[in-house]
Specification:
Blueprint lengths: L1 H25 L15 H11 L34 E5 L3 E6 L4 E11 L8 E5 L7 E9 L16 E3 L6 E10 L2 E10 L4 E10 L5 E12 L13 E5 L6 E3 L1 H6 L3 E5 L2 E5 L3 E6 L5 E8 L4 E7 L3 E3 L4 E12 L2 H7 L13 H18 L2 H15 L1 H16 L1 H11 L3 H14 L8 H20 L23 H16 L6 H18 L4 H24 L5
Parallel strand pairs: 1-6
Antiparallel strand pairs: 1-2, 2-3, 3-4, 5-10, 7-8, 8-9, 9-19, 10-17, 10-18, 11-12, 11-14, 13-16, 14-15, 15-19, 16-17
Length: 553
């Protein structure tokens, strides 16, 4: 019994170290690097366009592109400073972003509802960025006849500042390109309260013949600045299809082998802790999905639409849609099937989902994530009350017979065989199962891990306030009060439990509260709050059971 308890506490300590390393990785400060990408020489780009526009067998109206059609080669850019066009600033109720007239792509995107730190709401979190080591941009372009504009082409704009005005629910931002008989308008559509962006290429064909073309959409980013050797929240690519709703394609996978898949609907994304950039495939659209590892240390993942035919003198539209923003489950569920799976609770998702639902329900009722954590912890404790009771009863009986166990130790000295036999006889007479306290704890461990991932992965708890100075449950307690309280609760728990007979184990148990307190100094305060509440409830339950069984000192 005591040996198993020791192993459990030791395992918990190891897990805590790994969790701390994960938290460190997620909160690392990126280094600054101002290197940007550059377009290819016009001749090379023309050759690539010619190659990528090769005919594909099948019906033009509904045929997906084949690997030779993939635009990934367009992203192989020289590692020199890229020419920068004019920047079109767009402000909505959720975005503050910049579109560059070179390529007409979103180069910088900040989330106005998510400040970098508490108390500075004017400093928005930057998700897309083309000026730092953590490079992350969206890119789009056309493939087809008459050399249509790719993400290196130069667009024009009638104004450089757009704002979603009060009382309006929609904002359109047009960019224009003309050449080789084609007149193309790239239109971004933003809607109030939504993190979904629609992009339409409105194409007027005056080339003298039928125009055939496709739109490619891609996300390009670098690896994260810091990579933990232990656990960490996932940063990398994800692809979703009807056959495989959630498949991670990490950067090492892209180095080893490029994606080349054709399927209807689905989506592709680059995700990180709390946030996502995703390209959504049309429900009935057969797309070609691709990835590529670039020589400059960046990675591309995206898709290509089916071919569109536009007769001479006619117009047509190629539509695209993206989701760029926080990983809010109920919002992503409405944007695309299975997009909410990017809130990755790991292999315990089946437990974490109901735990999050409970947290969210309490938050909707109480309006405070801190109280939601407290009441969720209480509910979980009640659900496991009977199992915990069995464990605590076993420990209470062990505590009650501790003096007799000590007498046996003094009687048999170093004769471990006789000592163990005498202990087994004592357990049998007192109807104590030495393993009775361990099984209930082991059964509860998956629930505790699921709750940990729920608290760690949910963007709703990012900068969520509680009471007093706890104004960010995703950050450590600035005054270390919660970790110290947690350490005190661990000491009190030990006082209520039987003292290990092995002096070495007894010393380790005495040191554990100090070790855990040090670890928890750097933990998000939401997790520490859960631990404090759980320990407090355990102390109350153990004290009541000890008193009933006469195991109090």
């Amino acid at each position: 019994m005591e040996a198993l308890r020791f192993i459990l506490f030791l395992a918990l300590a190891i897990v805590s170290v790994l969790i701390y390393e994960a938290w460190q990785e997620d909160n690392a400060t990126p280094e600054v690097n101002v290197t940007a990408s550059a377009p290819q020489a016009p001749q090379a780009a023309q050759q690539q366009t010619s190659q990528q526009n090769a005919e594909v067998p099948g019906t033009p109206e509904n045929t997906a592109t084949q690997p030779s059609d993939a635009p990934a080669a367009l992203s192989v850019e020289a590692a020199t400073d890229a020419p920068r066009g004019k920047r079109v600033r767009v402000r909505t109720d959720v975005y503050d972003l910049q579109i560059d007239t070179i390529g007409g792509d979103i180069r910088i995107l900040e989330l106005s509802q998510y400040p970098i730190e508490v108390g500075k709401p004017e400093n928005y979190f930057r998700l897309l960025n083309d000026t730092t080591k953590d490079f992350f941009v969206s890119q789009m372009g056309l493939l087809g006849d008459a050399e249509p504009p790719n993400h290196h082409a130069s667009f024009t704009t009638v104004k450089l500042d757009y704002r979603l005005e009060e009382g309006r629910d929609e904002l359109k931002v047009p960019l224009h390109w003309q050449g080789n008989g084609l007149s193309i308008t790239k239109v971004y559509t933003f809607r109030r309260g939504l993190y979904q962006i629609d992009i339409d290429y409105e194409i007027k064909n005056g080339s003298g013949s039928t125009w055939q073309g496709r739109v490619y959409r891609q996300l390009q980013r670098s690896r994260p600045s810091e990579v933990s050797r232990f656990l960490y929240t996932y940063t990398g690519g994800v692809i979703s299809s009807e056959e495989n709703p959630y498949e991670k394609i990490d950067f090492d996978d892209m180095d080893e082998e490029a994606i080349s898949q054709d399927f209807t609907g689905g989506w592709v994304a680059m995700i990180q802790h709390y946030f996502i950039g995703a390209i959504l495939g049309g429900k009935d659209e057969l797309n070609h999905y691709f990835s590529k590892a670039l020589p400059n240390g960046r990675y591309v993942i995206g898709n290509v639409s089916p071919r569109l035919n536009i007769e001479n003198g006619a117009t047509g539209t190629l539509h695209s849609s993206m989701f760029i923003g926080p990983k809010i489950q109920e919002v992503m569920e409405k944007a695309a099937p299975n997009l909410e799976l990017t809130v990755d609770f790991g292999w315990l998702t089946f437990l974490a989902k109901p735990v999050f639902w409970l947290l969210d329900w309490f938050h909707g009722f109480l309006g405070n994530w801190g109280w939601a954590i407290i009441f969720t912890t209480i509910v979980i404790k009640l659900l496991f009350y009977k199992l915990s009771e069995a464990s605590y009863r076993s420990m209470a009986r062990m505590k009650k017979i501790s003096p007799r166990m000590q007498q046996l130790k003094e009687r048999f000295g170093d004769d471990k065989k006789k000592m163990n036999q005498a202990l087994m006889d004592l357990y049998k007479r007192e109807k104590i199962n030495p393993l009775g306290g361990c099984l209930p704890i082991l059964i509860q461990i998956p629930v505790f891990i699921a709750l940990y991932w729920t608290l760690l992965e949910s963007v709703e708890l990012r900068q969520a306030s509680f009471i007093f100075w706890w104004n960010d449950l995703s950050s450590p307690d600035p005054f270390f009060v919660l970790p110290i309280i947690m350490g005190i609760t661990m000491v009190l728990q030990q006082k209520l439990n039987p003292t290990p007979m092995d002096p070495t184990q007894a010393k380790v148990m005495m040191v554990l509260p100090i070790v855990f307190t040090v670890f928890f100094l750097f933990f998000p305060s939401g997790l520490v709050l859960y631990w404090v509440v759980n320990n407090t409830l355990s102390i109350l339950q153990q004290w009541v059971i000890n008193k009933r069984l006469g195991a109090t000192d």
